[in-house]
């Protein structure tokens, strides 16, 4: 079972000019098997939410809690959060020159499980995961994200998701910069992961496009560091027609 609970989360970003409050009380419960889409305009704090939950040092949690299956994540290091079952696919995946995809994945898997995966089955698993993302076998010898196209970075992240099979996944704009074919491949990977039935998925996006391929259980509208509206997938369809403006105005007047 994998339940992610975010309660009254307040987060500051640490800047050279001092602390800047970004998240202003986020509440969200993701139950096993659910996919929650978080949609909001640029600069509303969606990535801040993802980074704060993952434990990025530039983001300071000033109030509130985040638990995964009852374990308080905010008190754990980044590595401990991953071992607790949390996975973050970043909006801008980082390059790791000199570290091959194969070694990177093996190290991550070993860190999570506490033991190294068996070589023969692991090589097959990696090839399978890359293949499902339509990444060539030779990909595993390349340096992580170095010279990858935007689409390859995102497909590599979803291959990672499938291999590591965490309890909860936060996917930050996994759809950005993807052409229609890559969007389908990535969506199918997320759907396979979610179809296990006991995983928690938070899908951050500002376009409704990906929601044609990944059906969210709930949709949340995120404006100025808070969830300001919630609904089913029809909310995403309404957003497509109306945009965020009404929500931005309402939040400014609140
Ligand atoms: P979104 O992902 O919704 O586009 P972000 O979480 O990236 O929003 O950003 C939210 C706000 O926090 C923006 O105003 C952004 O400029 C600010 N912010 C995020 N990171 C930093 C940083 N490292 N330094 C200064 N401001 C930041
Ligand atoms: Mg943004
Ligand atoms: Mg962002």
- Poorly predicted regions: none
- Shape by Cα distribution: globular
CATH architecture: 3-Layer(aba) Sandwich
Number of strands: 12
In DSSP terms (H or I, runs of 4 or more residues), the helix count works out at 8
Helix content: 25-40%
Q: Could you say what the CATH topology is called? A: Rossmann fold
CATH class: Alpha Beta
State the domain count: 1
* Major beta sheet, strand line-up: 6-9-10-3-11-12
Query: Which H/E pattern describes the elements?
Result: EEEHEEHEEHHEHEHEEEHH
Provide the structure class. alpha/beta
Radius of gyration: 18 Å
Task: Give average pLDDT, whole number.
Answer: 94
What's the CATH superfamily, by name? P-loop containing nucleotide triphosphate hydrolases
- Termini separation: 37 Å
| Main sheet attributes: strand count, strand direction, barrel closure | 6 strands, mixed
Q: Which molecules are bound in this entry?
A: adenosine-5'-diphosphate, magnesium ion
Strand content: 25-35%
Task: Show the helix and strand layout.
Layout: E1 4-15, E2 18-30, E3 35-39, H1 46-54, E4 59-68, E5 71-72, H2 78-83, E6 86-89, E7 96-100, H3 101-113, H4 119-132, E8 143-144, H5 150-164, E9 168-172, H6 180-194, E10 200-205, E11 218-223, E12 226-231, H7 233-242, H8 245-253
Parallel strand pairs: 3-10, 3-11, 6-9, 9-10
Antiparallel strand pairs: 1-2, 1-4, 4-5, 7-8, 11-12
Helix pairs in contact: 4-5, 5-6
One magnesium ion binds near residues 47, 91, 172 and 173.
Describe this structure in words.
This protein is of the alpha/beta class. The chain has one domain: 3-Layer(aba) Sandwich (Rossmann fold), CATH 3.40.50.300. It is about 35% helix and about 30% strand. The protein contains eight helices and twelve strands. It has helices at about 45-55, 80-85, 100-115, 120-130, 150-165, 180-195, 235-240, 245-254, and strands at about 5-15, 20-30, 35-40, 60-70, 70, 85-90, 95-100, 145, 170, 200-205, 220-225, 225-230. The strands form three sheets. Strands 6-9-10-3-11-12 form a six-stranded mixed β-sheet, sandwiched between helices. A hairpin with a 2-residue loop joins strand 11 and strand 12. Helix 4 (about 120-130) packs across helix 5 (about 150-165) and helix 5 (about 150-165) packs parallel to helix 6. The longest helix is centred in the middle third of the chain and has 15 residues, at about 150-165. The relative contact order is 0.18. The protein binds adenosine-5'-diphosphate (ADP) and magnesium ion (2 copies). Adenosine-5'-diphosphate binds near residues 15, 40, 42 and 48.
